[in-house]
Design a protein that fits this description.
Number of strands: 10
CATH class of the largest domain: Alpha Beta
CATH topology of the largest domain: Spore Coat Polysaccharide Biosynthesis Protein SpsA, Chain A
CATH superfamily of the largest domain: Spore Coat Polysaccharide Biosynthesis Protein SpsA, Chain A
Helix content: 25-40%
Shape: globular
Order of helices and strands: EHEHEHEEHEEEEHHEHHHHH
Distance between the termini: 86 Å
Number of domains: 2
Number of helices: 11
Structural class: alpha/beta
Largest sheet: 10 strands, mixed
Length: 318
């Protein structure tokens, strides 16, 4: 029976999937592992590469080959692959990321073994860019030894854990229905795990988080109403999940997405819908007068009224 199940979640990542799998095969542990590669119906040859590894490493590399794309930005792929994990712990890796320390799994499993009050662990990671931007380490030296729910809730989106850096206790048998609807798997998953215990941190840089146009984060569109409403619903569900203990902060967070929605492509030329969203933003965010005045002038006051007002103000000078 494996102690750690490694879940590699992939879709159309033919260029990267070999490096991801090879980096897990290079792990040195005192316990058995299994590698579950969840493929979300790739059409670029990724699936054939997974099957090649299955033949080469029978029983160790297991392809979870879905018959169609499961949607939700890979979130359902993760859930369906997790159902097959036999390990006490599971590690999560995106198909375009890879591990750089052969003792990563051992170090993290040892930390969870030593701290039964920890629900998961993560470590530092290197971020690289497809466009040639300089690589950099994700976390600085001011990190804490562990984190709680309080550290994950803010007015803005909080992110300091690369997916490839995480190792979890396999102790959530059924994820809530709202989790399946979110297009962001990491944020709600971390909240649910933090409810169950502390999140331990290891400062060692042990994986690479690759930012590239094939990665899930590049499908986030902050000028798309559908994406923005999904984010709002996700934080609303998190608010309910946490029994509204962080209601004020999370409402401000949700308001940010209503502000972005004012410039969504779906609202171009739609005064009434845009004005309605602007009112929702002002109600939830309660911004200062300067910011509120800007939103009112730009999105709520009808253009003919704004032009008339400007004309009247200029009359004394004409």
């Amino acid at each position: 029976m494996p102690k750690v199940s490694v879940l590699i979640i992939t879709y159309n990542q033919k260029k990267f999937i070999r490096q991801a799998i090879d980096s897990v095969l290079a792990q040195k542990t005192t316990f058995p592992i299994e590698i579950l590669v969840g493929d979300d119906f790739s059409t670029d040859g990724t699936r054939e590469i997974i099957q090649e590894y299955e033949r080469q490493y029978p029983g160790l590399v297991i392809g979870v080959l879905h018959p169609h794309n499961m949607g939700k930005n890979g979130g359902i792929n993760f859930l369906e692959t997790l159902k097959l994990a036999k390990g006490e712990y599971y590690a999560l890796i995106d198909g375009d990321d890879y591990l750089t320390d052969p003792f990563k799994l051992q170090k993290q499993a040892d930390l969870l073994d030593a701290h039964p009050d920890y629900s998961m662990t993560f470590h530092n990671a290197l971020i690289t860019y497809e466009d040639g931007s300089p690589s950099h380490v994700l976390n600085g030296p001011d990190m804490k030894p562990f984190y709680t729910v309080d550290d994950l809730i803010g007015d803005d989106e909080i992110w300091f854990m690369a997916t490839s850096s995480t190792l979890y206790r396999n102790n959530i048998r059924e994820y809530p229905a709202w989790f399946r609807e979110s297009s962001s798997g990491d944020i709600p998953r971390l909240i649910l795990k933090a409810k169950l215990g502390k999140i331990g941190y290891i400062p060692d840089v042990m994986s690479v988080y690759r930012k590239n146009s094939a990665g899930a984060s590049f499908h986030d569109n902050y000028q798309n109403e559908v994406f923005l409403r999904n984010r709002i619903q996700m934080y609303s569900d998190i608010n309910q999940e946490l029994n509204y203990r962080y209601d004020t902060v999370l409402r401000r967070n949700m308001a940010r997405y209503y502000r972005m929605m004012l410039d969504a492509k779906q609202f171009e030329g739609s005064y009434f819908r845009r004005a309605q969203i602007a009112m929702k933003y002002l109600y939830m965010a309660k911004p200062g007068w300067r910011a509120a005045k800007d939103v009112i002038r730009k999105y709520i006051v009808p253009e003919p009224v704004a032009k008339l007002y400007s004309t009247l103000r200029l009359l004394p000078y004409r």
